[in-house]
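Support request from a user on the community tier.

User writes: "When I paste my structure tokens into the form, the page sometimes reloads and wipes my input. The last time it worked, I copied everything first. Here is what I submitted, just in case something in the input itself triggers the reload:"
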């Protein structure tokens, strides 16, 4: 039996899935096909949001810590972020190469409220969903959200399959994204959130005691290495699919559909495995699986082959989405959880800004294959690190039980 908050979170997530699948997947192809963006600019599509996140994390953390109702702050931040898509819809009317730079400026601007929304949601949902229900809840939620995203993406791919070079296609998608943002706000506001007492004492922007917790620190280091290898290839995948494989809106949609189909059927598997074997042990296999994606992708530009690769990648992406966030909560002491999540997001933003740019630099300096191979190597290194961390912790538990 679902609680009220769980239902509202699922409804909000469904609306969010519609908005994201109507916009995020098509911004790179919009930038390259309609605006004529360069590889460097495509890389900035992935890198700018983390940079803004880095600059906004501290102000966001202060506001969230002082907020009486975090849901209100999160809800209106989501709406503000979706509003930017109304502006993006008309970027195609801007003459010359200025359009692609304006798009990047709007993406950066959108990242300001997105930072508030993402950080607030992580803290907010972590506080209202009970610990023992998280694995089941996030598994079910992610599966339902993926189904919604799959339907939306499939419809877009079929209806707009011959409109890849039509600017109005993207305008329609981006304007609908804003309208869905209104629905997101409504469901976020329907959550029941305990009213927090206003603490008149000045909140500390940072609590350095979290770095004395070895369990959190070790997880933080290994997770950042994993994210470096993962995000290093984000811009590369977009460029490879659109420039090298010459994928249209239809095929971009099919790639995403393939990934989401795999996620739908694998969320429950990852949940069962994580409950049976523990989050850390299962994530080792997730990380090893994620390391194969860049290497296998560049073996062919055949569209059907790439669909299969996205299916394989989606299987492990679902494990990443489900388990990595649970690991963050699991390794964050409850009394300083907000500070732990904030620190994670700050450092993740640094990684997320730098790593896609390194990927593009490797592409421009060497080749697509070299860049993808190095992404695979970084992901594999992280998988090994997670395995070592798991072994160390397992031995420590056995040692403590014998005392």
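"...and here is what came back when it finally went through:"
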């Amino acid at each position: 039996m679902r609680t009220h908050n769980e239902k509202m979170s699922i409804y909000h997530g469904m609306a969010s899935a519609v908005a994201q699948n109507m916009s995020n997947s098509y911004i790179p192809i919009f930038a390259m096909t309609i605006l004529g963006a360069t590889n460097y600019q495509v890389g900035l599509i992935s890198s700018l949001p983390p940079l803004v996140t880095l600059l906004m994390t501290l102000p966001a953390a202060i506001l969230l810590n002082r907020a009486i109702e975090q849901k209100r702050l999160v809800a209106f931040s989501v709406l503000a972020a979706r509003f930017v898509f109304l502006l993006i819809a008309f970027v195609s009317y801007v003459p010359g190469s200025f359009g692609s730079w304006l798009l990047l400026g709007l993406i950066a601007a959108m990242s300001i409220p997105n930072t508030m929304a993402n950080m607030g949601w992580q803290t907010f949902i972590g506080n209202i969903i009970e610990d023992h229900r998280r694995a089941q809840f996030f598994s079910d939620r992610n599966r339902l959200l993926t189904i919604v995203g799959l339907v939306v993406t499939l419809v877009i791919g079929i209806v707009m399959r011959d409109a890849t070079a039509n600017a109005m296609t993207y305008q329609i998608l981006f304007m609908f994204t804003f309208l869905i943002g209104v629905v997101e706000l409504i469901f976020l506001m329907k959550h029941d959130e305990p009213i927090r007492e206003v603490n008149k004492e000045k909140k500390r922007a940072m609590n350095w005691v979290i770095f004395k917790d070895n369990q959190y620190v070790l997880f933080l280091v290994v997770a950042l290495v994993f994210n470096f290898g993962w995000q290093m290839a984000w811009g590369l995948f977009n460029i490879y699919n659109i420039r090298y494989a010459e994928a249209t809106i239809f095929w971009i949609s099919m790639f995403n559909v393939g990934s989401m189909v795999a996620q739908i059927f694998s969320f429950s598997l990852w949940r069962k495995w994580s409950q049976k074997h523990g989050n850390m042990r299962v994530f080792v296999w997730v990380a090893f699986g994620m390391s194969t994606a860049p290497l296998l992708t560049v073996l062919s530009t055949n569209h059907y082959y790439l669909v299969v690769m996205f299916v394989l990648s989606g299987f492990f992406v679902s494990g990443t989405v489900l388990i990595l966030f649970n690991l963050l909560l699991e390794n964050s002491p409850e009394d300083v959880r907000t500070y732990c999540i904030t620190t994670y997001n700050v450092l993740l933003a640094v990684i997320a800004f730098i790593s896609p740019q390194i990927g593009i630099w490797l592409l421009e300096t060497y080749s697509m294959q070299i860049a993808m191979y190095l992404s695979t190597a970084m992901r594999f290194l992280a998988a090994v690190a997670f395995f070592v961390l798991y072994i160390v912790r397992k031995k420590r538990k056995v040692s403590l039980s014998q005392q």
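Agent notes: The reload is a front-end session timeout and is unrelated to the input. The chain is about 80% helix and 0% strand. The domain at 4-191+205-393 is CATH 1.20.1250.20 (Growth Hormone; Chain: A;). Escalated to web team.
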